[in-house]
Specification:
409 residues; mainly beta; seven-stranded antiparallel sheet; 26 strands; globular
Amino acid sequence: MTRRGGRLRTVLTVLTAWSALAGAALVGAAPAGAAPRSVPLAPGVEYTQFDIPADRGVTHAHLLSVDLGDPQVRVGLLHPGAVAARAPVSQLADAQGALAGINGDFFNITETQHPGVEATGSTDGPAIADGHTLKAAVPNGQRFGPALPPGTTTEDVLGVGDDRLARLDRLALEGSVGTAERKLPLRGLNQYALPEGSVGAYTADWGSVSRARAVCGTDTDRAAPCSTDTYEVTVRDGQVVSSADSPGSGPIAAGTTVLVGREAGAQQLRKLSAGEEVSVEHRLVAAGSRVAYRFAIGGYPVLRQGKPLPGLDSVTSAVRTAVGIKDAGRRLLLLAIDGAAAYRSGLTIAEVASVMGGLGATEAFSLDGGGSTTLVARAPGATAVTVRNHPSGGAERPVPNGIGVFTRT
């Protein structure tokens, strides 16, 4: 056992209490060495705080333990109603009636490298809400966030299936655009970036933000210039109704699909004519599970079968958000590191994996961190959640999605 690993495992047995559960937002972190205990928010859901003396200094963690085996408890995707939209976690949780929640996937936060192109706020990875597929994954080279660990991709997800068990998996897009004469592969669904030479579909789930970002960058270079060979076709009720030389913006009506093509994909879309019948099909295919997902969110794995993934970053410390799976998928651990100045040194990704293993998780998944890291919870009897950690930016950052904890009690 390494010195760091030993320190992390030892401190996980010294949990500090949540001293102001029934109060408003957390004012100060609980003192180290307080009596170890967890505070129930509702049957099947507990909240705990604890200190972690990591290599870069003591940091403070906030943890939600969620019993998915309790029929009164479930987790779901927090989102603002459109893929290309953002809102604070507290607002998302209250709007959907969640008891608690954390922020989610990494996202398209800026477009400084493409002047005049609007940042979409859309996430890197796939997303499923209440069994409905919202989006697929962008190419690896187009993602926002830290470098992916070896062997992981933007298609990696944490999900909960119809069997109410949590698992890590990989969700790939399968789809096509069909006419009487040809069938084209569909390689994007409500994504802020499309693969080179491809066609992608945008539905009402996308929202009203411009689709121009979809044709910028390349599969290996997010900052590469936007393509100059683009085309867009609007399909309504199975027929082509309009076309344009560049991606547009504005809400997409129910029953309408906007097809965006770049390079070879654009050349194929130019062959479609007004009034032509077109079928668009798409689905996310799981690599590891045959159980349909009710919920799925993007990020990347850091722990599998109780072992940290090889090649995890052990140098860069930061405020982190992560999820652990234990008890054979029947329990989720939602972890948020405090962003207060005294604790902002945070954890490395390797330390996140070690912490999750020390908490009993066999799998763990990293979500967006830094200024996005937020954990909210509703005290018993309260009508709204409050932010329980200190966001490192001093206030909640609007985010595109998160993990919500819901109860029927």
